[in-house]
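Run log, item B.
One chain of 85 residues. Sequence copied directly from the ordering sheet:
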Amino acid sequence: MALGDNALAAGWTIVNPNLDLVKDGADEITETRDNAAEVKLETRPISRGGTGATTATQALKNLGIYVQAADPGHANGRIWIKLPG
């Protein structure tokens, strides 16, 4: 990835040495924003406090919560929220 891509993907601005007040060190500032954005945007496994998913539906399923019309079948610790079908 190019410098600043992660920061932009996270919705943060990057420092432009030609336009902003910071001339020296602009790349380093942008790189630290990239590093912080990488942590913000990562998909964390459940063992690290995340859900291991990139969508809400998959996150719920990974946590054992099924929101759907059809019965997902029984399993210990599983929760099913029935949608009207």
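Observations after the first pass:
- The CA atoms of residues 56 and 62 lie 10 Å apart.
- Residues 26-41 form the longest helix (16 residues).
Flagged for discussion on Thursday.
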